[in-house]
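User: I want to check something. If I give you two sequences, will you return the structure for each one separately, not as a complex?

Assistant: Yes, each is folded on its own. Here is the first sequence with its structure:
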Amino acid sequence: MKLLLINPNTTQAMTDAIAEAARAVASPGTEIVAVQPSFGPVSIESHYDEAFAAAGVAEQVRLAAAWRPDAVVIACFGDPGLEAAREATDAPVLGIAEPAFHAAGMLATGFSVITTMTRTCIMAERLLQRYGADQHCRGVHGTDIPVLDLEGCGVETLQQIEDAAREALARDRSGAIVLGCAGMAPLCATLSQRLGVPVIDGVAVAAKFAEALVGLGLRTSKHGDYAPPLPKPFVGWASPLRW
């Protein structure tokens, strides 16, 4: 199967790191095609960033229609453009937050989320409510580490994330940690070993869940609000992306 992996920001190094995390768990017959938008922010740390990132996700799903991926994973914890992507393809489309929440709920009675900027914690809390996972999540904790600082993550940054996770496990009485940023994916194995609890990277989990949905022959419903977008003219830079 061919899996379209979209990094919604425009930083190539992060796209490469995310692709490596997905390929590390992918089945032998799965090809990971990793892409990023042709426009938009270099990192996603606000509602404003996310608005442009969502358009970039839609762009990449539209462009991929030429080769029809079997599944799509949007590798950003805020799930930008998820609904639009599901309209634009009948392939299964997964973000990384929902699969991570579900996996954590299968492995522990309660989990904590460790993310980057504290200002984005409310965004994660809204996703927990949306996906019905708030009953299992015992806390969302920001580290105020800028997303781009995760590139080539140094000893101090890794230690800061580990310390935040240890504090969350103790304070929240949690049994697992969900990493609240796709850029943290390369740290998953190290943190799991150091913390002694399941540490869930949504990129890897989403890739495996996508494989499962494809293996089951399941597609995104085209009945109702996930029906294809209505044809209409687009103007300006978006004109080539009209339906």
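And separately, the second sequence with its own structure:
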Amino acid sequence: MTAEATGTPSTRRTVFLGCGSMSEAILVGLLSAGTPAENVTATVRRSERAEELRGRYPGLTVLAEQDDAGANAAAVQGADVAVLGVKPMGIADMCRSIGPALDPTTVVVSVAAAVTIATMEAALPTGQPLVRSMPNTPLKVGRGAVGISAGSQVTDSQLDAARAVFAGAGTVVVVPEDQLDAVSAVSGSGPAYAFYLAEAMAAAGVELGLDPELSMTLARETVAGAGIMLTAQDADPAVLRRNVTSPNGTTERAIAAFDAAGLSQIIARGAAAAAERAAELSRELA
């Protein structure tokens, strides 16, 4: 039996059940934060993917279901933290399949969207510590934003262990589960909003006569650069905006046009629609 997950990330044994692009991004952050690859195990479906990951991360143990149908159950034995990285439709089945092999103190962490704590707790052994998370794609570049919510059986030290899984790849916030849909609407879907803005800026440049490739370069680098400015400690987007908005200048005229079109309300409606859809998906998957 493992001890309750109170150690440092470098001493905990962490398992990734499914290692697609999102789970791999979390894995990279965990390794960069000091966890030895020897303390991490991953499972994948195909043997080729297993070989790829072993070559990329020396010391990492990777089991392929193609070679061993019981790879997931074998991987979780003695684990401190088990990260569920399969698609939402497969989460309940995964929980049921690994349940008999889990230590009672192993913290199960789900990165699947829309699958509620109640749904997963019903599929896991009674009393199993469970944390639900809402990560986003900038984890892949070490600038992620992750919301996590604790299940009914999670201790403070176990919640810290779950937080540490993501901390190497981004900012982690703890919220009640009923706020995860809002987190999803802001940070989960949020990268797409920024990409959409860059698309619109590039298209506007073309309308103004710029070469398409040049306009895309300008839009892409401007959005990326502004994002970096926002990473400064205590950066306030309203203050940053005002700093580049000279009275009676060109930027002020553009912002006035945005306000007249109700852009902030449009964004709010989009976020509300995203949160509503997240709630619908949770009901469908329950």
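Because they were folded independently, the notes below concern the second chain alone. The longest helix spans residues 263-285. The mean pLDDT is 95.
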